[in-house]
Amino acid sequence: MVVKNLCEGVPRPLPRSAPDELMKLHHGVGSQPLSIAVAAGPFCTNDNLDYEPLSDLLHSAKHNDVLVLCGPFVDVNHPKLSGGDVDIETEDGVESVDYDTFFNFKISGVLETLYEENPDTKLQVVLVPSLHDAHHDYVFPQPPFADRVEGGQQSPFFPEEKLFTLDIPHTGGLGEDSKRVHCVSNPAMIKVNEVVVGVTSTDVLMQLGKAEIAQRPMSSNRLGRLAEHLLKQQSFHPLFPANGGVAGEPVPVDMTKSDRLRMPMSPDVLLVPSRLATFARKLDNGTLVVNPGQLARGSGGGTFASLTIGGLPKEALEQVAAKEPSTPIPHQVAERTAVQIRRI
């Protein structure tokens, strides 16, 4: 048998918006370029549980519009967490806690401190769970973070404390500034102004790289080619078996929820954190794909990505609006985005 042709998939269309809507967002009163920071766990080095890289990131990103944090937040592979015995320092000394309470102290606590020390910040934080999060459901796709016991369970030893609660701050409320932290699923599609962002914390690029058996002769960029598989197969995890047949890369896919892995459209920006080399690249269909790397690597700091998305030219929008004001036009996000991969 001789293969004559490889039949690849076709990406779904990119999002579009009406010219008058884009005019308001890009050139309205007080409009500025959209700034998005993206980081993926682990968020602490492997020799301690101080979460210094995360604290440094929040200090750096407090002036951004959006910060996307992809797990793991409580890394099950961390040397000090993998054994199941989790100790934290409190006012009364060292205390053993469950994984949920550890998340409460280390992640919810630092987010609460961020907003207390910077009450004027407009930063919106998005939390994406990971399969390596010790405190969360080990199934893919994953639901958003939530209390394992709604409202928590009162501790039998300390009446003033509650167990099995994440206590993530600023996730509810009626006021405009009340909801600043948004818990989403893994994978997820989110919308920031007109920009549609697709994100998954699962290292699908690493798995695709090990499972790929054929490629186009003219394809020179391996990382971009791996990312294109997601768009052309319209899925955040285009592998079957779930690990691509690669030993040591278990992905517990729930096939009854496989519809949640599908892409309803091609995102303007695709975030795919991976252990592979960091990169930012415009794909053939116009999607901007970004691998921000890991915020902590071993005993040192890692990298994160900073995206600055400018507006479409005012003159071009006015011309389109004058001719066809109700006809949606493509966002062209990749052409107007500057990406920096920065070290922490």
Chain-wise SSE layout:
Layout: E1 16-17, H1 19-27, E2 34-40, H2 52-61, E3 66-70, E4 86-90, E5 93-97, H3 99-117, E6 124-128, E7 153-154, E8 162-163, E9 181-183, E10 188-192, E11 195-199, H4 204-211, H5 222-232, E12 269-271, E13 279-282, E14 288-291, E15 296-297, E16 300-301, E17 303-309, H6 314-323, E18 329-330, E19 337-343
Core attributes:
single chain; about 350 residues; alpha/beta; five-stranded mixed beta sheet; about 20% strand
| Uncertain runs | none
- Could you give the order of strands across the largest sheet? 9-6-3-2-17-19
Q: Largest sheet, if any?
A: 6 strands, mixed
Give the overall form.
globular
Beta content: 15-25%
Give the strand tally. Answer: 19
**Protein structure class:** alpha/beta
- Would you list the SSEs in sequence order as H and E? EHEHEEEHEEEEEEHHEEEEEEHEE
How many DSSP H or I helices? 6
Computed Rg: 21 Å
- End-to-end span in angstroms? 52 Å
Share of helix, binned:
10-25%
Q: Estimate the mean pLDDT confidence.
A: 89
Q: If you had to describe this structure to a student in words, what would you say it looks like?
A:
This protein has 344 residues and is an alpha/beta fold. Helices cover 19% and strands 22% of the residues. The chain has helices at residues 19-27, 52-61, 99-117, 204-211, 222-232, 314-323; strands spanning 16-17, 34-40, 66-70, 86-90, 93-97, 124-128, 153-154, 162-163, 181-183, 188-192, 195-199, 269-271, 279-282, 288-291, 296-297, 300-301, 303-309, 329-330, 337-343. It has a 6-stranded mixed β-sheet with strand order 9-6-3-2-17-19, with no helix packed on it. Strands 10-11-12-14-13 form a 5-stranded mixed β-sheet, with helices on one face. Strand 2, helix 2 and strand 3 (66-70) form a beta-alpha-beta unit. Helix 1 (19-27) runs antiparallel to helix 6. The model has no long low-confidence stretch (mean pLDDT 89).
